[in-house]
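for the writeup, i need someone to sanity check this before i put it in the appendix. the sequnce is what the collaborator sent (i think, or maybe the updated version? ugh). structure was predicted straight from it, no edits. if anything looks off just tell me and ill rerun, i have time this weekend
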Amino acid sequence: MRLHRLFTTTFLLTSVVAAPGPSSGPSAENVKRVANSEAGPRQNKNYQLPVDTKYFHEPGGTNELGHYDIRYYAGSPVSYEERGDTLHHLIRSYLTVFRERNIETWIAHGTLLGWWWNGKIMPWDWDLDTQVSASTLTWLGENLNMTMHNYTSINPDGTEVNREYLLDINPNHIERVRGDGMNVIDARWIDVRTGLFIDITGLSEVNPSTQPGIWTCKNFHRYRTRDLYPLRETEFEGVKALVPYSFDKILTQEYSTRALTKTLHEGHQWVPEQKEWVKQGTVQGTIQPHVPRSLQPEGEPESGLKNLFRVL
């Protein structure tokens, strides 16, 4: 595991100074305002947004180009190596800033699946996914929308990494139903150097009177309160993170049990001796199919603390 020292500072780009939350709640203290123009495009200065109801826009045209914020897309995709490095620092900075400010968030979808395998981003992923409650999303919109975050990481070899990230809250987040489907992403944590991002979605009890304890996002993912809470503390990409309580149940419902046993995917092969996904063609020798520990013996994965220890 690589060790880093992290330093973050926050700059508020809106004209509103938020009142700090209670000591036990989220914090928006010590934010510094800068001009709104600071949030403007750094790379793609000539982009034109289409006339539609969508808030976040991507270059599009291919699956790959659907994973860049158009405002910061430099005109060509980053390399495989740079993508991995960018996503690594994206999630580390996001989790660090949210923890420092006592803002509850947890990893989700393919990012959660990567954690399940080895606590890392899966190398074929183009973006990352996290979730927050709708109440947290509202707080973010009122207190930290359009904030720029400076991040410094010191690598073990002494080299320094400096990055900058924009937290942008979709104003349509207040609508907790899908609508026309153009705004299912509620917020983004964006690397302004490349345009790569973390998608942040909110969960809410849309029908508390008829479906109490059922939490949904605007993309039809449904969870029970007992499957989400209490959140479990763990590590992801070397920093502290939270995952849902019944993470194994959530993963098998979303991806099927095969996603927890399949060892060849997207041109990569799981190497159990290294506990890593490696590009096919670079693996030496014959690799035997690997069944993760939480699925041994054969059967449905168990939920709860026992499975957490077995996976980790």
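The chain has one domain: 5-258. The chain is about 20% helix and 25% strand.
thx in advance!!
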